[in-house]
Amino acid sequence: MSLSSLLRRGVGLQLEVMSELSADRLAETLVAFANGDGGTVLLGSDAQGNVTNSLQAEDAETLLRSALAQCRPLVRTEWERFEGRDGLVVGIHVPRSTELHSLTDGRVLVRSHLGNEVLDGAKISFLAATKATGDFEQETVAGAGRADLDDEVIQDFLHRRAARLGRDLGQTVDELMVGIGALKPDGQPTVAGLLLFGREPQFFLPQSGLVYVRFAGTEPRGLPGQTIYTRREDFNGGLARVIEGCWAILLQEMRGEAVVRGLKREDKHVYPLFAVREALVNAVCHRDYRLSGKRVEVRQFDDRLEISSPGGLPGYITLDNIIEEHFSRNPRLVNGLFEWGYIEQLGLGIDRMIEEMVQAGHPQPEFKATPYSFTVVLHRTVVAEPRRAIPEWATGMNERQIRAIQYLKESGRITNREYHELCSDVSPETLRLDLNDLVEKGLVMKIGDKKGTYYILK
């Protein structure tokens, strides 16, 4: 990875810059990255990529040895040289560790948006328990082979990743797949690889799909005389397809009032789109995939949207610190979806989700946590509007016909083609019946025949 692509992430959860060299600070950062989601330390650079120190390779090696001597157990690192006209910058890459690391003075640190945070006893216990479960997303999947990955999905990922980075990394596809943890060096897919790029990951991991249910009313029992739910959709495939499939349904089901200007329909939505998408993506990438028999669930009611993922809060995260802290159960899935463009900025989504909901006039999101599930509830504030008298001409019409009459008032005439553009999600036969009904009601007049047919107000 180039120096510029590293710096695009910005100093934060997975990047630190050290313009002034310090073995103590480097040791703290190595431990914090190893206990968190991993990261990179740039020696001899500022946040803009300017060389700030006449760094020599020998100086970097000495500094790293001194810092590693303060880490218990030893933190695994890899380092990379970035040569420029102004001098040398050294990048020290730290992968996420399955062990709990501390400094020689006993401090345990993790990485947060504020820098390296020292954990207290309770948080250390939570983090240690999480580390003890191992690295499930890097385990191989019995019976799965390289052919179980979808090359079209992989190419889409690589194309978007190269566009985001601004360059092709010059590696083969399988080398890149090994680098991001999707394949083992022997070509066997990992759990992360199947979830991100699998043709049918649910064949191996049935719990990796998602179910959407739209309930009538505000309770999961339906209205009197109606079925429990009005819509149910199941989504399978790789995580990107699961997210996009559910997102397309949510866009339909969250439509509020629409404004029609000429032939253009502008849809408004009952919830802020960012807040919903963030909750959806988080549920898919942060769930505990070790838990079988339960999928991510999206439940929509008239007054709220509930998105629930199997598995309790990861690491030392609690309901009290969920806004300030960040810890990924599945860092490779998170990084994969980030590189793909499904996550805008690592670790900052909860803050913006709350902000978007409040700015839209809704309550703050509600977070519910149990040992085996985590749920985000987006409550909808319904503003009662004064009832407007229904025009006499609108009595007995459906929404499409009312839209057609409004268009006729503005434009004077409407054709079958224009009506279809106005209601593009409805079949031509349904629209033809709509217009015939308006003719029979004496509201519009049909002019012409066949392709030359159009309608005017009567």
Task: Explain the overall architecture.
By secondary structure, the chain is of the alpha+beta class. It folds into four domains: 3-129, Schlafen, AAA domain (Methyltransferase, Cobalt-precorrin-4 Transmethylase, Domain 2); 146-202, no CATH class; 207-379, Heat Shock Protein 90 (2-Layer Sandwich), CATH 3.30.565; 392-457, Winged helix-like DNA-binding domain superfamily/Winged helix DNA-binding domain (Arc Repressor Mutant, subunit A, Orthogonal Bundle). It has helices spanning 3-7, 23-35, 57-68, 121-132, 151-165, 173-179, 191-197, 201-204, 239-253, 273-286, 331-340, 349-359, 399-411, 416-422, 428-440, and strands spanning 15-18, 39-43, 71-72, 78-84, 87-94, 102-103, 109-112, 115-118, 210-215, 229-235, 255-261, 264-269, 296-300, 304-310, 366-370, 373-379, 444-447, 454-457. It has a six-stranded mixed β-sheet, with helices on one face. Strands 1-2-5-4 form a four-stranded mixed β-sheet. Strands 3-6 form a two-stranded antiparallel ribbon. The longest helix is centred in the middle third of the chain and has 15 residues, at 151-165. The radius of gyration is 28 Å and the shape is elongated. The relative contact order is 0.09.
Number of strands: 18
What is the annotated CATH architecture of the largest domain? 2-Layer Sandwich
Regarding quaternary structure, what we see is single chain
* Major sheet: 6 strands, mixed
Largest sheet: spatial strand order:
10-9-13-14-16-15
CATH fold group of the largest domain:
Heat Shock Protein 90
